[in-house]
Structure formats: structure tokens, C-alpha cells
Amino acid sequence: MRVRDIFVIGASAGGVEALTRLVRTLPANLPGSLFVVLHLPAESPSLLPQILTRVGQITASHPADGERIVPSHIYVAPPDHHMLIEGERICVVRGPKENRHRPAIDPLFRSAARSYRERVVGIVLSGMLDDGTAGLMAIKRCGGLAIVQEPSDALYPSMPLSAREHVKTDYCLPVDKIGQLLVSLASEPVKELQSGLANIDLGKEMQMVEMKTNGFNEQELVGKSSAFSCPECGGVLWEIKDGNFLRFRCRTGHAFSAESALAEQSESVDKALWNALKTLDEKVSLSARLTKQAQERGNAQSTRYFQKQRQQAEEDAGHLRSILLGASVEDSAEPEEWCQRVEQN
Fold first, then answer.
1. Shortest CA distance to 247 belongs to which of 216, 273, 208?
2. How many CB atoms lie under 10 A from the CB of residue 73?
């Protein structure tokens, strides 16, 4: 009997709090496997498997590449690696970032949809921006179910809101009620769908995540070329339309939703402005030094020239400081901060 027994879960800011609430409600003998992606800094060790094992009745771990999937187990993507599902095994790869993250949620969701189709249940929890939306679309196209945390129940509602806006979700619940639903879904038979429903582009995108394609072969690329460049590597971005959801992928595999691409561009602009300010400050200092040397030599023309250079650099630096001081930075919580808080409680 085929049942919905592959549960893929994505979370970001506020995700540890949501995940611990969810895991507490799951029985030890849950007839299914759970796969979790939480956005984490690449350089930080993850305490999430230990936390989930301690608060719940199901063991959690970081899987090894090629590890066989077993029921009643929670697999957590390790830092700086995507976690993919390939048949009965897990693939752990350090492929190109998606939506500015590695691990990212969308690659896990797509791989699960490709391997297990109608048996997959995708769950989007608390987080910023919109990672998980495109992956949830793939799950729905392949016959799976889509669940989102009730936005008012999430510490950071952006990811659930995006999923609800772009995907025909099957359930929208507070996280405390999702566990009971998963138990129910895991015992209900599901009809096998026709294999023709799978999207061919899904396989191409998974190959790009695993870096198994030649990025210069345009037949292997998905979508159509756009006028934008990849914020990560500078290559051409290819535009992909999922219904009314716009996203991009470059030749080397970096992928962005339109919102995450805009966020990455904003960060690039910020870095460029700070670099320009540093250069202008150095120009002020060097011009002052050259002015002093010209004065010591009694060279009036050079003195005036270097004084003008210093004055212009000081004015330009002042304008840049005004721009930088006026920029607002959206506050967000790092997932590892939540790990530490839960660990202490």
C-alpha cells in the first residue's frame, strides 16, 4: 500500500522554535521519514539534530552521502551542503547556492518530488523571503501535498505567506497541529499517479544542483536567457516562470527567486558602497600627504591640485556616509541563536 510517508520540511529564521514544537508532537513509531533543511551559516556547527532528538521521541542526525533512508528517523541537512533524495538513499552535495543558501529548501523539495511523487508531503515553516515556494510547487505538480505553518503562528511569516500566495496549499495550520496531521497522512493510502505528470525540467535542475551538467550546453539549461547577471558569479541568469512565480538560474547552477535575487543585489550594492567609501578615505589621506610634500617643496601649483583632490574626495565621502547611514537593515534572527536558546532551556 502506497502512503504519504516522505515528509520534507523547510525553515529559516524562527525555524528552530517551530521545529521543536513540531517534533514534540510526533510519535516514536511514525511510519515515515522526515527530512529537514534549516538555513544555517556555512561556518557554524549545527546543534539541530541533538536538539530535535532531545525534545522528541524520534532520533535525528546529519546523514552521510549515500545513506539509506529508514522510517521513524529525522534527517537534517548539514551546514554548507544541500541534502537531496535519490531513490532509497540520501545525497549530500556541496552544490551551488540556491536563494543565497546552502543548504537550501527548494533542492530537497524538488528531489523528493522527483523520487517519491505522490508520497511526498512538503512543509514550509517560519522564515524570511521565499525559499521553499518553488520546491512546494514541484511537489504539487508531482501529486504530493503542501502544508504551511499558519503565518500568524510563525515568528517570521514571510516564507509561509509566499507559499500560500503562489501554491495551492492543502493545509495551513499552527505548527502544534501539523504533527497530528502527519500521523494521519502516513496511514492513508494514496493512489499512484501516471509517470507522465513529472516535469522534465525537474531532472535538469537536480543535475545542476549536483553539478552533473555542462553549463555551456544551452540544451541543459532551464528557461530563457534574461538581461540580468548572477549576483554570485556574474554569469547570465536564465528566467524560469512557475505560474506567477518568477525565478532565475545561471549556467553554473546558482538559483534565485526574484525576491532573493533582489536581496542579493542589495547586499552587493552595500558592499560596493562601503568599498567606495574606503577608497575615498584613502584618497583623502594620500592627497593630504601629497599636499604637505608639495608645500615643503614650495610647489604652489601641485599644492593647489592636491588640495582640490582632497576636498573633492572629502565631499564625495560625505555623500556616501549619508547614504550608508540612511540605509535600514531588516532585523532577523540567526537560526543558531535559537539553537543556543533551546539548548539552555
1. 208
2. 17
Q: Which one from 131, 162, 257, 287 is the annotated catalytic residue?
A: 131
Q: What is the pLDDT of residues 52-99, one digit of tens each?
A: 999 999 999 999 999 999 999 999 999 999 999 999 999 999 999 999
CA distance 156 to 152: 9
Who contacts 225 (Cβ-Cβ below 8 Å, separation ≥6)? 236, 237, 238, 239
Nearby residues of 20 by Cβ (< 8 Å), 6 or more positions away: 51, 52, 55, 56, 342
User: What strands lie across the sheet with 255-257, from one edge to the other?
Assistant: 224-229, 236-242, 245-250, 255-257
Neighbour-count burial for 233-244, b at 16+ CB within 10 Å, e otherwise:
eeeebbbbebee
* H/E element, 74: strand 73-76
Instruction: Report the alpha-carbon angle 258-263-268, nearest 5.
Output: 120
39 flagged as catalytic: yes
Ramachandran region, residue 110 (left: φ > 0; alpha: ψ -120 to 50; beta: rest): alpha
Catalytic residue among 5, 12, 81, 257: 12
Catalytic status, residue 162? no
Q: What is the pTM of this model?
A: 0.83
Q: Kindly report, residue by residue over 202-224, the tens digit of the pLDDT.
A: 777 877 888 776 655 555 567 78
**C-alpha cell at position 253:** 547552477
The yes-or-no answer on residue 12 being catalytic is yes
Residue type, 235: G
Contact in structure between 74 and 100 (CB atoms under 8 Å)? no
